[in-house]
Amino acid sequence: xxxxxxxxxxxxxxxxxxxxxxxxxxxxxxxxxxxxxxxxxxxxxxxxxxxxxxxxxxxxxxxxxxxxxxxxxxxxxxxxxxxxxxxxxxxxxxxxxxxxxxxxxxxxxxxxxxxxxxxxxxxxxxxxxxxxxxxxxxxxxxxxxxxxxxxxxxxxxxxxxxxxxxxxxxxxxxxxxxxxxxxxxxxxxxxxxxxxxxxxxxxxxxxxxxxxxxxxxxxxxxxxxxxxxxxxxxxxxxxxxxxxxxxxxxxxxxxxxxxxxxxxxxxxxxxxxxxxxxxxxxxxxxxxxxxxxxxxxxxxxxxxxxxxxxxxxxxxxxxxxxxxxxxxxxxxxxxxxxxxxxxxxxxxxxxxxxxxxxxxxxxxxxxxxxxxxxxxxxxxxxxxxxxxxxxxxxxxxxxxxxxxxxxxxxxxxxxxxxxxxxxxxxxxxxxxxxxxxxxxxxxxxxxxxxxxxxxxxxxxxxxxxxxxxxxxxxxxxxxxxxxxxxxxxxxxxxxxxxxxxxxxxxxxxxxxxxxxxxxxxxxxxxxxxxxxxxxxxxxxxxxxxxxxxxxxxxxxxxxxxxxxxxxxxxxxxxxxxxxxxxxxxxxxxxxxxxxxxxxxxxxxxxxxxxxxxxxxxxxxxxxxxxxxxxxxxxxxxxxxxxxxxxxxxxxxxxxxxxxxxxxxxxxxxxxxxxxxxxxxxxxxxxxxxxxxxxxxxxxxxxxxxxxxxxxxxxxxxxxxxxxxxxxxxxxxxxxxxxxxxxxxxxxxxxxxxxxxxxxxxxxx
Length: 764
Description:
Layout: E1 2-5, E2 8-11, E3 33-34, E4 45-46, E5 57-65, E6 71-82, H1 83-95, H2 98-110, E7 117-127, E8 132-142, H3 143-148, E9 155-158, E10 178-179, E11 184-194, E12 205-209, E13 212-221, E14 224-233, E15 238-239, H4 244-257, E16 259-262, H5 271-274, H6 279-282, H7 286-298, H8 302-316, H9 324-339, H10 343-356, H11 361-373, H12 377-390, H13 392-396, H14 400-411, H15 415-431, H16 441-456, H17 460-467, H18 473-481, H19 489-497, H20 501-517, H21 522-534, H22 538-549, H23 552-558, H24 560-575, H25 579-590, H26 601-613, H27 617-631, H28 637-653, H29 657-669, H30 675-684, H31 688-700, H32 702-710, E17 714-715, H33 723-736, H34 739-748, E18 753-754
Parallel strand pairs: 5-11, 17-18
Antiparallel strand pairs: 1-2, 3-4, 5-6, 6-8, 7-8, 9-16, 10-15, 11-14, 12-13, 13-14
Helix pairs in contact: 7-8, 8-9, 9-10, 9-11, 10-11, 11-12, 12-15, 14-15, 15-16, 16-17, 18-19, 20-21, 21-22, 21-24, 22-24, 23-24, 24-25, 25-26, 26-27, 26-28, 27-28, 28-29, 28-30, 30-31, 31-32, 31-33, 31-34
């Protein structure tokens, strides 16, 4: 059957009873050509569109080994089928019982691990609308069977999802074209974790033969290693004979590298060199160590530090290496060198210490500080991972200024690295409970980012653990609309049914309980105001923040966290239509002195923007001009672009369009730095085609997609819009409704209802 939807053709086989998806998301038939029965049709028509909906198979296997435990190994497997692959799996499920499939899966793994038992029944989640089928398997191996099978000496892994898909090399030279399976997209992530063992990681691989690509990437992480395989092929299924050699090379490499063996009993034990130091081992060095402590503790002059360094250098040559005592001495040397301002040798000494001894928080903190100031985010992440296990308080109490400085460094990274680095930071901090006791806006934001990061890395089980920590309702809604996160859509279905209303109310209850425990904590108070604003309860948000907002002395003494609290309180006032009161609150912050507190530049910009949104363009223009003239040096390019966009909007509202054009040109030139600001300026001048182009670009760009998808949310609780906001929303709504934009949105997301307001989603 030939169907036309939004100007696009879709070929549907009515007999294919197990197909999922709706509308253009249905996987079309792939039967070559057809002759539609209709007036004027005289030629065969090619059936197109299958390649885009052929679908994927993504497997995640996690092996957890604890050689001393009664259950020595567990295995969790999650297999996600999408598009045409989901249709195929749905057909398999219809042809056999779940029990039969579970038995077959168990027998498959028992060939490698005799005695393996099913610890949970096979789970099957079928999201027919999204056309995604997810299977979950859980197995366990007792210590008796583990030892009997000698798994500790030889644990085998097998990337079966990518095996037997590429033709093997033939004996003689190839003279005829080589036929391949087209539209392949399969991945398998194998994680092996062994308690108190440092496992090896294989080399990375990347091979290509036209549209055929095979890759393997490995990452060591604490007591484990993650190995990600992927095999893809485009819609070409014929390779000329002359190119067959490159295909055979990939086939050989997959055969050689898809099965890996881990000799766990030969892997080193971190605890052997990184635990506490026996006092007896310290005794030979006690006198010299006491002398170093005296020199560093009682005196701070250069000569004392140099003498302490001399003693540390002599001590460092004495112990056996590697050993915990050698690590301690190297770390002590690193601290002395850091005190002398010699960061390069200090870093080398501290890194050597970290490999051998992890019992001193000051040494790790100093190393992290050096790596932070040296602009080495990748190295810093490695140190933070070690600290997360050995000195968890360091990460749980990670300095807010350090975190923001890291975010600034990440923003300057190449586009392909930014998102991964941002997710790495979020996962590390959220995994340590950063700013969650008491819960703060920053901590909850980090939690949401970490969930997205784990899901994009295929770590669904880890993401579910974080979801159990109650992320914000807007985070849950964002997950529910983004097709990258379909694996957990079944988990979100209950909350989605009422627009996440229960989650919104629960966030208020949790925030109130947090404030009751810490009534003077600005971070906790900000979280409560934010929760109430999300629910559309501006009067309650104002009441919740009124007492703390009057504590000017405490606000200045606290700094950034308190500044953002006042910012939040002012926006609650603006939500309630009390723009003058909101401006007065921001004026109180400005009185502290932006030059004295440069981070207040964000509040300077927000204050100026309040005039625009309050239908006061003349005051907005004056405030934004002052912000640019006096304080732009403190602002990032992201902030400067909000200034330019706000000024352009104010000028347009004052019928000074010619003056606005120069600002709009500056915005377009650097639009990648703040696409939202460029979009707002386009809305102010009524440039719907530009907005449509920007929306499509943002949806196509993984890093910007979440914010763009959020613009399509249906909100149920909104404050009455000003004339300025209503005008811009009209332009934005028209752009979102454009056929090309709707089609692009359908590729990446779905519309979700949200029972709250869009206070934290952004309008542009």
